[in-house]
Write a structure and sequence with these properties.
By secondary structure, the protein is an all-alpha fold. It has one domain. 62% of the residues lie in helices and 0% in strands. The two termini are 22 Å apart.
């Protein structure tokens, strides 16, 4: 699990890899959305694309210390990946999962920082586990 401190600054290659992965991931989202809006039969390919790119982005963020799984934002990423995996395993569920992910992701991404980075783990004393503010991508 990441400690919150970056292990090292991203190289130029890593930065571009993240940009490409995020673009591929969003292409998968649009692809699923096209199926949903058109009311056509669904395919598992876009969900698999979203799952694969999402897992790689998570691994990159964990390695760089940009995400902490014990915070609301990190836990939500795991929930999103589980729901995307469900879409890939059972494409009949794609419509409701798509809308849940779309709305939930928007809320989670734009919620106040204090909520997104609120720790979900507590110390034995009941106090929240302290953490430095997350590094920025830039």
């Amino acid at each position: 699990m990441a400690t919150g401190a970056p292990k090292q600054k991203d190289s130029e290659f890593e930065r571009w890899a993240a940009v490409v992965l995020r673009s591929v991931h969003l292409a998968g989202v649009v692809w699923v959305g096209a199926f949903v809006v058109a009311g056509q039969g669904v395919d598992r390919a876009p969900a698999l694309l979203m799952l694969a790119s999402g897992l790689v982005m998570l691994a990159m963020d964990l390695r760089a210390g940009r995400i902490v799984l014990a915070e609301v934002a990190g836990g939500f990423v795991l929930v999103k990946l589980a729901l995307v995996a469900w879409m890939a395993l059972d494409p009949r569920q794609i419509v409701w999962i798509f809308w849940l992910l779309l709305v939930g992701s928007s809320i989670a991404s734009h919620a106040p920082k204090g909520f997104r980075h609120w720790p979900t783990k507590k110390r034995a004393s009941g106090a929240a586990v302290p953490r430095e503010s997350p590094p920025t991508r830039g």
